[in-house]
Amino acid sequence: MTWRNLLAGALALTLFFVPADARRKPKEEPKIKVSCVGNSITYGMRLDNREEDCYPAQLQRMLGDRYEVGNFGKSGATLLRHGHRPYFEQEEFRQAMAFAGDIVVIHLGINDTDPRNWPHFRDEFVGDYLALIDSLRSVNPKARFLIARMTPIGSHHTRFISGTKTWHAQIQEAIETVADAAGAELIDFYEPLHRYPWLFPDAVHPTAEGASILAKTVYSGITGDYGGLRVSPMFSDHMVLPREKAFLIQGTADAHEKVKVTVDGDVFEAEANNRGQWCVLVPHRPAKVGAELRIETAKSSLVYRDVAFGDIWLCSGQSNMEFEVRQSSDAAPRPDAGLRLYDMKCNWRTDNVAWPATALDSVNHLQYFAPMRWQCASEDAIARFSAVGYTFGQMLRDSLQVPIGLICNAVGGSTAESWIDRETLETRYPAILRDWLHNDLIMEWARGRAEKNLANRPASVEGYGIVPARHPYEPCYNFEAGILPLDHFPITGVIWYQGESNAERVEVHEELFPLLVDSWRNYFSDVPFYYVQLSSLNRPSWPIFRDSQRRLLDSRPGLGMAVTSDLGDPADVHYRQKKPVGERLALQALEKHYGHAVKADGPLAREAARVGQDIFIDFYPQEALRSADGGPIVGFEVQDAADGLFHPVSAEVTGGLVRLDCAAIRAPKAVRYAWQPYTRANLVNATGLPASTFRLPVR
Fold first, then answer.
1. Residues 51/77, Cβ–Cβ less than 8 Å
2. Which of 109, 142, 399, 475 keeps 20 to 30 A from 68, CA to CA?
3. Res 468: pLDDT
4. Which phi and psi (to 5°) does residue 639 adopt?
5. Contact, 616 vs 652, CB < 8 A?
6. CA distances (Å), 538 to each of 542, 569, 571, in order?
7. Are 46 and 54 in contact (CB under 8 A)?
């Protein structure tokens, strides 16, 4: 045997004894490459630890070793090729082309809001975006594209009012057009961050926490993992769903999961879209208690028992709506299984104290309301519920004989602007958002109390400078913390008791209140909105504010006002007799929404006309008028143009009108009624409902 044969045999023996696992070692799969294309937000500008905290780096950690994430963000880059810094011309674009990502995530457009760009080249945006996608697709034809609706630009941006906000919205629409035209998947960087302005201290660049939200959004878009089956926290045993009208049940699940919804035995099916969203339309159901609701996927199920079908009313506002049954002098609890309560209590009260750091963090993250579940109206649950809300709900129960659900999320001291959504204020009243703790459009008391609560807030975040912490008196806050969690719940209507914290800014409130109504109707659908006119209290601004509330009745259809100037306490804003308030609101609903033959409104002045030495005042609705106590009618004053002053005058009812004796008035100019902060004015209708404070010119 030659030495060559010996060597061949030795090699064969060596190969024979190599472990089988080593001989059959699988070929390592190539990593899935993710290209993150964008501007300074993708790059991670302003982050102290950019390489670790930018959203692509956080995305890499979430996706794990199977993926390779490349950050191709360029600060200041525009999508527009005629913009001041086109992405097409940057080194990062060339790097992205060389990387040839299997998945391409694009977030561009923020810098195109610059006045050098969008006003001149807006018509080129869609074409330029499609060209960018085509270029990146040319190096990897099988690439999957996720394009992002842009992150928010904060209202404290220097160009926000001058055009940036408007142009930002126009670019968002253009991005959606691009997604459709390119067959790309649309992900949303806007909605998850819009409610957290404190995560954008310079109005543009997110903090590390904000970048984490972006990373999670991309992670879910890539993997389809949205945390499995989820629905609104409003869903629980004993919940109330609408009767006699179709309604949506919606939630999230992992992308493309099949969802089965069983409502009292009837089955409805849906499939989650690529953003994890699903919904089913449930046809109208008759009033009922004791139903079951099941929501199921292949991996999980949610079951809710003792579900009722009835009407759901939202009870909101500030402390006089929050005021509990057990604190009132006249509300009597009556347990009722047909009355269901969803009582959103505050985690932190706005008393005159500095909140600890734990409170500040909780409030910043919109965790102001404690978790809650629907409850049947037991004696204990009623005692802790809104006295106005409970009386309203019980009167509806007695009149309608159907299940009634009441949601209460009132916040003591809260301002009207705090209950309006951010988009509405940004587009229709942005001035109130600017430096709100020092903004004279907001009542000084509210700003001062907020400053006290926020005294322990941090001085800076990641080197951005002073960052004001969030607060329930801040514009938009209560909408974001207390309305958004209701998740478009199909409410029947709203009762509202608020105004004390806006009474010194009458003209501002006249702008805000219609925006509030529009905001909620846009969110919940076109629901009726019944509100309380402020009561009597020794605060000088209250008469003119009550008159303003009267005039606001004509600002929108579907409004109703309960007059309470015959109630109140001269020295205590929290008067204890709340039963009449709830009853008057219930009359508004019963007449104007349900069509019952009841009278909801007290006398409302229509016009004042001079006839000889008298002034006659016409009221509507036209019905019998009288004094509340059987004595003379008091509370009327007439302005004399000769001296400019208002003088008390005697009044009587004649022929359905109120006649004022003006013999001592040389030149009657205007008439007013109940114009004292704490008034003893006593004009009522036949059923005892009081007349509203008013001021009218004399014709």
1. no
2. 109
3. 62
4. -85, 130
5. no
6. 8, 8, 6
7. no
| 445 to 80, 449, 455, 538: CA distances (angstroms) | 47, 6, 15, 16
Residue 350 and residue 413 in contact, taking contact as beta carbons nearer than 8 Å: yes
207-212: long-range pairs with CB below 8 Å, 24+: 207/47, 207/461, 207/462, 207/464, 208/47, 208/48, 208/49, 208/53, 208/462, 211/44, 211/47, 211/53, 211/54, 211/55, 211/58, 212/55, 212/58
Question: Do residues 491 and 524 touch, judged by C-beta distance below 8 A?
Answer: yes
Are 673 and 691 contacting, i.e. CB atoms less than 8 angstroms apart?
yes
As separate numbers, helices (DSSP H) first and strands (DSSP E) second, the chain gives 21, 29
CA distances from 346 to 250, 319, 372, 663, 672 (A): 26, 12, 11, 56, 40
In the chain, what are the domain boundaries? 32-223, 604-697
Residue 20: which residues within 8 A CB-CB, separation 6 or more? none
Q: Looking at the DSSP assignment, which residues form a beta bridge with residue 626?
A: 684
pLDDT at 24: 59
Spell out the residues 6+ positions from residue 171 whose beta carbon is closer than 8 angstroms to its own.
109, 112, 113, 118, 125, 150
What was the pLDDT predicted at 460? Answer: 62
| Cα 484 to chain centroid, rounded | 5
Distance CA 14, CA 18 (A): 7
Mean pLDDT, consecutive 10-residue segments, the chain of 699 residues? 42 42 65 98 96 98 98 98 98 98 98 97 98 98 98 92 91 98 97 94 94 98 97 97 97 98 97 96 97 98 98 98 96 93 97 95 95 97 98 98 98 98 96 94 97 87 60 98 96 98 98 98 96 97 98 97 96 96 98 97 96 94 92 97 96 94 94 97 96 97
Provide the edge-to-edge strand list for the sheet that holds 668-673.
646-648, 636-640, 668-673, 694-697
Q: Sign of torsion, CA 615 620 626 629?
A: negative
Contacts of 506 (CB under 8 A, 6+ apart): 541, 544, 545, 548
Provide the pLDDT for residue 61: 98
Give the Cα separation of 214 and 209 in Å (integer). 9
- Which residues, 6+ apart, have CB-to-CB distance to 374 below 8 Å? 236, 237, 238, 239, 240, 340, 341, 342, 405
Paired tokens of 351 = 């008393």
Domain 32-223 has CATH 1.10.10.10: no
The CATH code of domain 604-697 reads 2.60.40
For residues 108 and 39, the answer to whether their CB atoms sit within 8 Å is yes
- Return the half-sphere exposure (C-beta side, CA atoms, 13 A cut-off) of residue 642: 8
Residue with tokens 């004292």: 676
Alpha-carbon span 203 to 154, nearest angstrom: 4
What does the DSSP 8-state code read for residue 356?
A: P
Q: Are 261 and 269 in contact (CB under 8 A)?
A: yes
- Length of the chain measured in residues: 699
Q: Distance between CA atoms of 531 and 581, rounded to whole angstroms?
A: 10
E-strand spans in 393-525? Answer: 404-408, 493-497
Q: What is the pLDDT of residue 562?
A: 98
Segment holding 261, helix H or strand E = strand 258-263
